[in-house]
Amino acid sequence: MKSRREVWRASAMALLLAAGFAGAGCRQDMHDAPRFNPLRVSDFYDDRRSARPLIEDTVPRGWLMADDAFATGKVNGQFVAELPVPLTLDLLKRGENRFNIYCSPCHSRTGNGDGIVVRRGFKQPPSYHDPRLRAQPIGYFFDVISHGFGQMPDYAAQIQPQDRWAIAAYVRALQVSRHANVADVPAADRPQLDAQPPPAGATKPSTEAPKEKEGAAR
Ligand code: HEC
After folding, report:
1. How far, in Å, from the CA of 39 to the mean position of ligand 1?
2. How far apart are CA 62 and CA 52, in angstroms?
3. Is there an atom of ligand 1 within 6 Å of 166 CB?
4. pTM of the entire structure?
5. What is the per-residue pLDDT across 60-96, written as a single tens digit (0 to 9) for each?
6. Is the minimum distance from the CB of 20 to ligand 1 under 6 angstroms?
7. Of all protein residues, whose CA lies closest to atom 2 belonging to ligand 1?
8. Cβ atoms within 10 Å of 29's Cβ, excluding its own
9. What's the CATH number for 68-179?
10. Tens digit of pLDDT for each residue in 150-206?
11. What angle do CA 114, 117, 122 make, to 5 degrees?
């Protein structure tokens, strides 16, 4: 049996602990700041919505899309034929990188429409090397990425405009790559073509004349 003293000590401890917890519960700290839980009703606003609608015509910092060509790929409703950002090697490399992530699963790395997702049953997209798609202005590719096309979903949420242009430029480069001939290689670089045989398994570069004059910068 416990001595009286032990019982007394135990109850004193319990009392102290209880007082401690009660004290902590009363503290109003920052974790208890006035705020609304998501979508909680509010008596402060007339429409009683605590989640406020965006104020019209406000633009988050860094998101002012004043340049139509850059933001939509169109000027006066027409697709732009010129890349609205500077064409650099870095842009093409970025485009290649994004293309291989976002587009190649369906369109394949060469753009012929034979990606792994298609091999497993998804609708086959047309090849980028089709004359119809080769003739499209570059703004068209930006538009397809932004809004999707037929069964292809849009990639507006995943790919920001700057990267959409990088991809569009890279798609153009893919198209040009199938229709280039020796005359397109700067004279100074031509000796390199003979110096480096293509890797095993690669097909011989096409010597077919381009069907139309096409600048890589378009
Ligand atoms: C999930 C598979 C899929 C992915 C990923 C995909 N596409 Fe497509 N794409 C398609 C299909 C399917 C079509 C044909 C749609 C149709 O005709 O219904 C298509 C069509 C197109 C066309 C041709 C439109 C026309 O006029 O015929 C372009 C250009 C294109 N895609 C670009 C892209 C680019 C650029 C990306 C990457 C940002 C991309 N696609 C990612 C499946 C995909």
Report:
1. 37
2. 22
3. no
4. 0.71
5. 888 888 899 999 999 999 999 999 999 999 999 999 9
6. no
7. 106
8. 7
9. 1.10.760.10
10. 999 999 999 999 999 999 999 999 999 998 888 888 899 888 887 867 677 666 655
11. 90
